[in-house]
Amino acid sequence: MAAREEETRKKEETEIASSDSEDDEHDSKERVLQRYFLQEWKLVKSLLDDIVSNGRVSDPSSVHKIRSIMDKYQEQGQLLEPYLESMVSPLMFIIRSKTIELGVDFDEILQIIKPISIIVYSLVTVSGYKAVIKFFPHQVSDLELAVSLLEKCHNTSSVTSLRQESTGEMEAKCVMLLWLSILVLVPFDISSVDTSIAGSSGSVGEDELAPLVLRILGFSKDYLSNAGPMRTMAGLVLSKLLTRPDMPKAFTSFIEWTHEVLSSTMDDVVSHFRLIGAVEALAAIFKAGSRKVLLDVVHTVWNDDSVLIKSGTAARSPLLRKYLVKLTQRIGLTCLPYRSPSWRYVGRTSSLGENISLNASNKNDQLNHGVVLPNSESEENSNCPEDEDMDVPEIIEEIIEVLLSGLRDTDTVVRWSAAKGIGRVTSRLMSVLSEEVLSSVLDLFSPGEGDGSWHGGCLALAELARRGLLLPTSLPKVVPVVVKALHYDVRRGPHSIGSHVRDAAAYVCWAFGRAYYHTDMRNVLEQLAPHLLTVACYDREVNCRRAAAAAFQENVGRQGNYPHGIDIVNTADYFSLSSRVNSYIHVAVRIAQYEGYLHPFVDELLHNKICHWDKGLRELASEALSALVGYDAVYFANFVLEKLIPFTLSSDLCTRHGATLAAGELVLALHQCGYDLPIDKQKQVSGVVPAIEKARLYRGKGGEIMRAAVSRFIECISFSRLSLTEKIKRSLLDTLNENLRHPNSQIQNTAVKALKHFVQAFLVAMDSKGSISVTSKYLQLVGDSNVAVRRGSAMALGVLPYELLANQWRDVLLKLCRSCAIEDNREDRDAEARVNAVKGLISVCETLAQARENSDIHSGEEGMSLFLLIKNEVMVCLFKALDDYSVDNRGDVGSWVREAAMEGLERCTYILCQRCSMSSTRESDVLGSVSKLPNSDFAEENQMCSFFDVNLATNLVGGIAKQAVEKMDKLREVAAKVLQRILYHKEIFIPFIPYREKIEEIVPNKTDLKWGVPTFSYPRFVQLLQFSCYSRPVLSGLVISIGGLQDSLRKASLSAFLEYLQVDEDINNESKVCKLSNDILWILQEYKRCDRVIVPTLKTIEILFSKKIFLDMEAQTSIFCAGVLDSLVVEMRGSKDFSKLYAGIAILGYISSLSDPINSRAFSHLLTFLSHRYPKIRKASAEQVYLVLLQNGSLVSEEKTEKALEIISETCWDGDMETAKLMKLELYAIAGLDVGPIKTTEKVPNKDVKKSAAPDENESYSSLVESTGF
């Protein structure tokens, strides 16, 4: 309702505004642009109003707010133009009024001007100075005011440019210079407004300059040496001042000064910027000055210019060369009188009335030659000399030569300026001379020229076309050159150059579309269109693709009814061409359906892209070529394939790699189109790989990418089921086997993909003996000492079809199961081999299970034994793989195995449960009852399914949940998603999961859950600790995170854990803590001497002790502390791990502080560390002993406590070892403890803790040292 009222109100306002005759133009513009600028304008206007009302910037932050808003409009400055007057005028009024009010000599005047200048200058940078200075005040009296202000800014310059930018001094200078550029145009003699003259003698001699002019010239020359924007603006001021009719003396003096600067041989930084400033100022003067005045100094300036442009100084400075070229072209324009040549091609009539007045016959005649209006022609004939009567100065030839040289420059800015100069100068020449200029420009496209010449030539052609100086009669010479430029790509080492040339060539085509009528462009567009669309679809660079598409769109829009033009423009738009893959595979295929584009596209791919230096582009080009096969299969089979096969043996690596890929993709595409290759063609294709091997093209540089390409080629011909001889089959199989042994994983992966289809296509039909030999070979290589061979063989076994596995499936499964385990020999360990073994094992299981389900033998003994083997061997193997925490120099490489194992467990679970559902006739009853059972008691009641039981389900969920609470974000996310799929599989129900309903609350069936975010996942999964069947695996993973090194992860996991313990504190907290203590003792025993788990577990215990958890469990506290002490005795003896020692000492301190008999044993153990070999450990122990004595008065009698504290505080424990030992013995005596070895209790009074015989201490420690590499 409110929205409707708002809409009605807006309509009423619009009607009132339209009927209001007093609405000014600014208001109407503001309404049009309000959707772009309204929100910011409200803020900007409020800030400006505040500045205007105060007469100054009271809050410096408002300046930065306005500047940040203006910066957003950097690319769309025209949106600000309706608001410039309302922003600039009040700000400049403040500058003017405050200066008049306070005076220039007032010290604080600059502090008022600078912030305002920052705002004005930000508008200049966005909208341009020409749009802004229109709103500057320009009273005659302001001239001296502005000069005085600028002098004050100039004389108080800062030390560094950074400070100028930060305080507004640079902006103030720029704004004052812009203000002066308007004020020096006052229509009076400047000496008449100079108050210093009126105050002294009242007159100035003819040869003297007014003091005001001298002041302006003085600081303007200084600013010409500046490296900032003041240099350009000083040149603007000089160009307006010195070209005044009353300034001939000043003009002559400045030309003499520039002659000295340009002739100077000084080579310091200031001189270099002064040189640039002088040339820039001269260029501005030659742009603004009258031809009559400038002709007198042309020879002087040109001599300096021509010498300087050939000097080494110019060669080192692109900016200097740019201004020299700009000055050169303006000297040329000065030497040539302005004329609108009669031979110029006029692309559009100037008014609608003249268009209507032209009769049809006359119009058609003019369209063929360009429209030249009768009145303009007569005016040209009367005002301009005829071509043959025109006298061209000799200097013009030199100027054109300099401009042509500028087109070859190494920098784009110089070439662009030279191209504009060529266009401007040519527009004042005779037609004969213009043809010579065009001929010289076309010479830039010779093969010997570099990419700079081609780029400059394209820019020059575009300028000539835009100005009507490139006649339609010259297009037959120009178009072939433009076509070559569209495809310009020159290889330079590992890359190529030419994207800027192709971009400029597209700009030329765009200029053609805007300059010529459709009758003149019809034949040209037919030539250019296929090449433009080729670049638009297949160029490597996105800017070139978009530029070519824009050029084609411009031509279609302006040249009339081009066949399929609108459809193609809609297909190849700006956004669809942003993706290279989309351009190659989709856009090009849709365009190729139109007549005239298929063959150009194929030629481009065949000759330029298949052999491209970029490997990714070659692969994409081969796919793009195959995507076009459907339009003309015969052409591709007879012509394209015939061309590609010889290229597979090319000496150039890029060519043979691309040709091999493309040939394979073509054969596959032809097969998919239903086209059968002739026998002779099949023989040619089948001989490609043997020929490559015979030529030994796998060796040397590029051998790896050729192996990958050959594997893809074999995969394609396997899909196509070509007829191969037995010899060829064996050769191809050997090739794949060699690629499987390669250490490069990418080559192995491509070989495995090829092997899968090759075996299915060519080996399944072989005799059983041949298939057995293939399987036996891979089975044998799985245990090879070469890790690359093990990796490849495991993957190969995973892709073999059932026919090759049928006779040896048991051996294959058992062998792969053994390969999943960590190798005994440390040198043979390889994480990638284990990952591949896990993946291969799962693939073999799925292959066998699917074949058994599709056959009629699933109820036989062999079928039963398969699924029992999966349950008893494969699942056990995968559960062991979940405990693979191997680490090498790359980090936790065991995580790759764990990730693969989780996915493998999921897939094997589906296999077993699907088998159960097939063999059970009472599935619905069983599933209905299972989902309601809370615990594992169901195992005793129903054992209908012998392949998947409650123990398996418990271990499955527990093992995955453990990974879901560990420290790696990626693994947590994978584990949660695997568990989610298991719980909510649409086709297969997973039975026997204890507490399924609770788990489904923890892991809901929702997408886009952020399982990798610790603050989201931990609060959910810690709830599994309440279930005894899951608590131990979950806690063993959780302690890794709580006691880990990553701070954010530790905080999130600990917070979730403590929150879990505090929920329902009155009812279940004590039982929770008791269960938790038992589980921690189980972890300490289960992972004895495994620092990966023990260290974070000890840190976790320390943190929990600090939170007063475990310290108030009555009888359970003693049991827990005794168990922890037993573990500490084993773990800390002989340990060199500082983290473990620090955590253990802290735990001993907490236990010693208890009022329980166990404290004396902990305190005795703590005292032993006072003589530890590491000083830091002795010091940490002493600190803990001190705290214990303060907190627990039962350990030492009151009269001895003070002495013990004195010993601890006065002894330097990280000093001399002997002193520490003596002090330790004294403390033992004070505490009444015996100095002796710490013995472990024979049993831990916890029924859940495993009993194990105490191993030999020295043996266990030696093994630990050996395993850690000491």
Most strands sheet: 2 strands, antiparallel
Number of helix segments?
64
Extended strand count: 2
Low-pLDDT sequence parts: 1-27, 159-165, 349-387, 921-944, 1238-1270
| Helix-residue proportion | 55-70%
Per DSSP, what share of the residues sits in E-state strands of 2 or more residues?
under 5%
Shape: flat
Structural class: mainly alpha
Neighbour order of strands in the largest sheet: 1-2
Summarize the structure.
The chain is mostly helical. 69% of the residues lie in helices and 0% in strands.
Please give a structural write-up.
69% of the residues lie in helices and 0% in strands. With 1270 residues, it is mainly α. Among the domains are: 47-191 and 210-293, no CATH class; 596-750; 1094-1234. It has a two-stranded antiparallel ribbon. Helix 23 (412-426) packs parallel to helix 25 and helix 44 (809-820) packs antiparallel against helix 45 (831-854). The longest helix has 30 residues, at 25-54. It starts with a helix and ends with a helix.
Characteristic key phrases:
single chain; 1270 residues; flat; disordered N terminus; GTPase activator activity
Q: What is the strand and helix layout of this fold?
A:
Blueprint lengths: L1 H18 L5 H30 L5 H12 L9 H22 L6 H19 L1 H4 L9 H14 L5 H7 L1 H15 L11 H5 L11 H13 L6 H13 L5 H16 L5 H20 L2 H4 L3 H12 L2 H4 L2 H18 L16 H6 L2 H10 L4 H10 L11 H12 L5 H15 L4 H12 L8 H16 L8 H12 L3 E3 L2 E3 L1 H17 L2 H21 L3 H17 L6 H7 L8 H12 L6 H12 L5 H13 L5 H15 L5 H20 L6 H8 L1 H7 L8 H18 L5 H15 L4 H19 L4 H14 L5 H13 L2 H4 L3 H12 L10 H24 L6 H21 L12 H26 L3 H8 L7 H4 L8 H14 L5 H15 L12 H7 L11 H8 L6 H15 L4 H16 L2 H22 L4 H16 L8 H18 L5 H15 L5 H11 L6 H17 L6 H13 L6 H15 L25 H12 L2
Helix pairs in contact: 2-4, 3-5, 4-5, 5-9, 7-9, 7-11, 9-12, 11-12, 12-14, 13-14, 13-16, 14-18, 16-18, 18-22, 18-23, 22-23, 23-25, 25-27, 26-27, 26-28, 27-28, 27-29, 28-29, 28-31, 28-32, 31-33, 32-33, 33-35, 34-35, 35-38, 38-39, 38-40, 39-40, 40-42, 41-42, 42-45, 44-45, 44-46, 45-46, 45-47, ...
